[in-house]
Amino acid sequence: METQKENKDVLVHNENGEWISVTKVIFLFESFATKLKAHAEKQGVKFSVHKWYDGTFWCYRQEFEAINLRDFKMTAREWKTLVDQYVNI
């Protein structure tokens, strides 16, 4: 994953050429990203999944937080992925 240190803030480079703070993204694994995307589509919520050249999947934190997770069933691995990134669930 391409990252850059700047002002003690780690940044990721998106496919539009913009640098985004890692505090504004959530890193996912493929099956979890697919499952979240399907859940968001059922709710009519915009949720885009991005993929790095190294295969790492990520989404914008703002889009993730717009999803209602009340009826969403998560595995322990999925839960840990979010908790490790300080996501409010």
Features:
89 residues; alpha+beta; 3-stranded antiparallel β-sheet; globular; disordered N terminus
Structural account:
The chain is of the alpha+beta class and 89 residues long. Helix content is 30%, strand content 26%. A 3-stranded antiparallel sheet has the order 1-2-3, with no helix packed on it. It has a 3-stranded antiparallel sheet with strand order 4-6-5. The chain is globular and about 35 Å long.
DSSP helix fraction = 25-40%
Q: Low-confidence parts lasting 5 or more residues at pLDDT below 50? A: 1-7
Into which percentage range does the β-strand content fall?
A: 25-35%
Overall structural class, as computed from helix and strand content, comes to: alpha+beta
Radius of gyration: 13 Å
Major beta sheet summary: 3 strands, antiparallel
Bulk shape:
globular
Distance between the termini: 26 Å
Biggest sheet strand order reads 1-2-3
Number of helices: 3
Q: Provide the residue-averaged pLDDT.
A: 87
Along the chain, the helix and strand elements come as EEEEHEEHH
The number of distinct β-strands equals: 6
